[in-house]
Recover the amino acids of this structure.
């Protein structure tokens, strides 16, 4: 599972010209669900995202997490994060989970964030969405729940546990 997190002062999602979700200060999370993703990936994201220290404290240091800030999370499904552009000019999406498999995992991810005490709003799965945001910083972070597996598959040494 891949997520692009953007620290925002506000963000919203509209479908067919109608706003379906909006948040104030917090994180916009664009989530790509890959084939083979499952509960371990959801659990990893639900533990990691609320605790990442991406917000400034009184001293101006990125020292506060979404949970500590009391910020909101706007979760938007984006299968294009799984695009493989290594060959040709047309991206391949063969690593993305089929919509029938991804939809329930997306809902489970939203529920897991709520279970972790995060205020969550979501886009509409499989809809053409217009996402508006004010990126604060800018701060943009890429997370991959299977990074160790991918690194070791390339023959590189496995990353140490943290």
């Amino acid at each position: 599972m891949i997520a692009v997190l953007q620290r925002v002062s506000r963000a919203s999602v509209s479908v067919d010209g109608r706003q379906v979700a909006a948040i104030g200060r917090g994180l916009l999370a664009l989530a790509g669900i890959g084939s083979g993703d499952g509960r371990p990936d959801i659990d990893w994201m639900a533990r990691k995202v609320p605790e990442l220290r991406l917000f400034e404290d009184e001293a101006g240091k990125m020292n506060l997490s979404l949970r500590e800030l009391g910020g909101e999370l706007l979760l938007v499904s984006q299968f294009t994060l799984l695009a493989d552009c290594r060959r040709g000019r047309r991206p391949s999406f063969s690593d993305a989970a089929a919509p029938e498999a991804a939809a329930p995992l997306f809902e489970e991810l939203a529920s897991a964030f709520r279970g972790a005490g995060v205020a969550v709003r979501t886009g509409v799965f499989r809809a053409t969405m217009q996402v508006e945001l004010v990126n604060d910083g800018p701060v943009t972070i890429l997370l991959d729940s299977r990074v160790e597996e991918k690194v070791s598959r390339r023959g590189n040494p496995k990353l140490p546990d943290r």
Observations:
- The chain has one domain: 2-153.
- Strands lie at 2-15, 18-23, 26-32, 53-56, 62-65, 72-77, 119-122, 129-144.
